Prior knowledge:
67% of the residues lie in helices and 0% in strands. The protein starts with a helix and ends with a helix. The model has no long low-confidence stretch (mean pLDDT 82). It has helices at residues 2-18, 38-65. The protein is mostly helical and 67 residues long.
Amino acid sequence: MFARAAAISRSGMTNLVRYSHSHGGIPGENLPFSLTNRYKLTALFIVFCGSGLGAPFFILRHQLLKQ
């Protein structure tokens, strides 16, 4: 049962990749953001990493200031 499901999903993914109209070989083609604007990419990177690294500190501050 599991082997049949695996084979179906494998063939479905193969067809998805094959007919996705992606030419491949272009760096950054499959990313959900653009790499052409260096300053926008830097700002998005800082916001993304800063939110993940800063979240525990803001949560801790919130918990300590609660009454």
